[in-house]
Design goal:
Blueprint: H1 2-59, H2 67-73
């Protein structure tokens, strides 16, 4: 009877050790699931920002000298890569 109980306890211990080994991967997957919507939103904002910058540049007069004041008023330097 004691041998059966010992065998059962060993099986439980092995199952718990296997679960402990899986835990880091489970937490990482959960973190990625929570992070994904934020990364998608960030990319949408980056895309929107680039579109708005391009639109602003299109609204500028053709002369470079007239372009600077409006760009600086919006905190832009005319470089669409700067975010």
């Amino acid at each position: 009877m004691l041998e059966q109980e010992l065998a059962k306890t060993r099986e439980e211990l092995q199952a718990m050790q296997a679960l402990l080994e899986e835990l880091p991967a489970l937490f990482e997957d959960k973190f990625r699931q929570r992070l994904q919507p934020m990364l998608e939103q960030q990319q949408r904002l980056i895309d929107d920002n680039a579109k708005l910058r391009q639109h602003l540049l299109q609204l500028q007069p053709a002369r470079d000298s007239g372009r600077q004041p409006l760009l600086h008023a919006f905190g832009l330097n005319g470089d669409s890569r700067a975010a």
